[in-house]
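User: I've been trying to design a sequence by hand for this structure and keep getting stuck. Would you show me what you'd pick, starting by listing the structure so we're on the same page?

Assistant: Good idea, let's start from the same input. This is the structure you sent:
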């Protein structure tokens, strides 16, 4: 049976909704919600995020968040296993 995955990444979207919680968003992804939206707007239409295979990619928003989270970690916290657990995705999706 497939392994169940439940991460904490969904909290970032909750933190982004309330300016009082933006510091939590920044702590998680190392950018403000506004900067996240600017970066997303710059990259979301790039062809690298779309493919013609049977394996669908995660939404660009998720890919960006995982990348920012990973870039903001070091040591044991930067392990692929820990990042996958945080995001609720497979380790292969982090690599």
């Amino acid at each position: 049976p497939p392994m169940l995955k439940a991460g904490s990444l969904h909290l970032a979207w909750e933190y982004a909704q309330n300016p009082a919680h933006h510091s939590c968003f920044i702590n998680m992804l190392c950018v403000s919600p506004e900067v996240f939206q600017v970066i997303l707007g710059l990259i979301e239409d790039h062809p690298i995020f779309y493919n013609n295979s049977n394996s669908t990619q995660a939404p660009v928003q998720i890919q960006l968040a995982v990348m920012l989270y990973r870039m903001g970690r070091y040591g044991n916290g930067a392990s692929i296993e820990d990042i996958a657990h945080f995001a609720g995705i497979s380790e292969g999706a982090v690599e």
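That's my pick for every position. To get oriented when you compare it with your attempt: Residues 60-71 form the longest helix (12 residues). The chain has a mean pLDDT of 90.
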